[in-house]
Amino acid sequence: MSSRHAPEPASTGPVPSDGGARGAPSEEPLARHLLPDGAQVGPDGRLSVGGVDLVDLADEVGTPVFVYDEAHLRARCAEAVSAFGTGVAYATKAFLCKAMARLAVEEGMSLDVSTAGELGTALAAGVPGARLVLHGNNKSDAELADAMRSGVARIVVDSFDEIARIGRLVGGPQLTGGVPQQVMVRVTPGVEAHTHEYVMTGQEDSKFGFSLASGAATEALDALRAMPGVELVGVHSHIGSQIFRLDAFEREVALLAPLLERYDLGELCIGGGLGVAYLGAEEAPTITEWASCLRAVGSAAGVPDSARVTAEPGRSIVATAGLTCYRVGTIKRLEGIRTYVSVDGGMSDNPRPVLYGSGYEAFLPSAVAARRPFAARIVGKHCESGDVLVADARLPEQTQVGDVIATPVTGAYGFSMASNYNRVPRPAVVFVGGGETKIVVRRETVEDLLRLEP
Ligand code: LLP
Predict the structure, then answer these.
(1) pLDDT tens across 397-410, in order?
(2) Is 325 a catalytic residue?
């Protein structure tokens, strides 16, 4: 049962591309499906999201700025809950701040946190421990103890060293109020997903989880089942990210299903990984399609109807809800070579093009329905040539210095992977909806950058 959408992954060199379809960049106006649900084009051709005009927003809040359509975020969380049911967790690594943690939990999701920082942010947002799942391939004693003290719903165990660490902690002074800590085992199923090698995780050669083929997974399950103070509730695996083809998930479920029966476990979490369209030519399965495919494969593979088959979507919840607005600072035309359009952000707010060769589109919020015949390379303000945001952008002819330019589908792994390279302060993050703009993370200042230094 493969997705009817499933574009074949294209290759752009020695490593596979992001996973989606790649064609020649289009001069057509930006494709509607790359914009948030709440995007609307006014009679003057200007784009508003959630009732807020983006050019006005950029003038007021400054650039670069990450703009999220709050209703879109809520709709995707609600879709995940209705598709997977209770226990489906938002993978906070995709985008986290207190407002996002609260929003996802208000919509019924749990949260996957994988570091002390993600755990601390969720707790600071008022999220109860019972809605948290702790991940990580190298959890420290302190992270494990904090998680247990906070009453996290699940710890997803990743290594034999961690099993020993958990054993010491549950055998020591009481951290969980006498309640056994529920744990799952992260299994490496030996499934290679079609995606960039940096975000593939299900293959045998991986730092994550316990290998199914080598027997490490069953050894871990045996050890945890026998450990006093913990309750083994299920198996987990995560095969990678930005995956368009559902067949890899199907293989994952089929491989893990027998473990549920063998260990009499009631829960199977298949991780995150559902891809999203970044380019007009791409189309991805929906969360609902993903869930129904997994359930069908699970049933066929013998997962009992009573078992909880769940997931941890990150990108598919937040990517398309967000976009980044920049301001054009310079346009450099190199005769016979190319034109460079420089904006006031760059690899510090979106390292994905540099890291994974990820493709993006660009448009002018002042003319979102305009054709885009102007070929340019959109670059940032950092001191290196690799600082490329959109290698082959198409823009409206009238694009000029001072314009607000936007890249859509930057809601996932942009803000969360932002850096201060070149001592560039990180952008503000706003939620828009009902004609209102809420600053959920204020723009960093140079003073913020200096605050750690004596
Ligand atoms: N669960 C686990 C255990 C994960 O490691 C991840 C992502 C997810 C869930 C969520 O996966 P998603 O639904 O977002 O694909 N920085 C890369 C993506 C790294 C993904 C890391 N793990 C990128 O920008 O493409």
Answers:
(1) 999 999 999 999 99
(2) no
